[in-house]
Here is the input.
Amino acid sequence: MKARVTVTLKPGVLDPQGRAIHHALNGLGFDGVEGVRQGKVIELDLADGTPTAAIEDMARKLLANTVIETFRVETL
Amino acid sequence: MKARVTVTLKPGVLDPQGRAIHHALNGLGFDGVEGVRQGKVIELDLADGTPTAAIEDMARKLLANTVIETFRVETL
Here is the structure.
């Protein structure tokens, strides 16, 4: 089975990478960009029947820094 | 309007970060992990009415290295 964990910074946490992308997009002439936030997406190939709770556990223990990041689990 | 660009490595491209995560998950005792691929997700706040073609252009010119990465655009 496949699962996807999307990890993004919590609102209010400074996102220097997002700022850099925003600045670069403006520099390339893309108008109308009001904000940019960058996160991670981790695609997992798992044994069939792996419970969502186990995937959330992986996210809490390794994939996300839960102090400054939130995560979302999707099973595909 | 909001859009999300998901950038992932093309199949066959070596993913050392994914390998490192896979190794760490096994080390933490998570069995049943058969493969891990890591990518980026960029969330954009855009002026209303920004066409998808412009977002794809941003992805081609900046957000993704189209030699080794593919991207997917979602308008939210």
In short: The two ends of chain A are 7 Å apart (CA to CA). The longest helix of chain A spans residues 16-27.
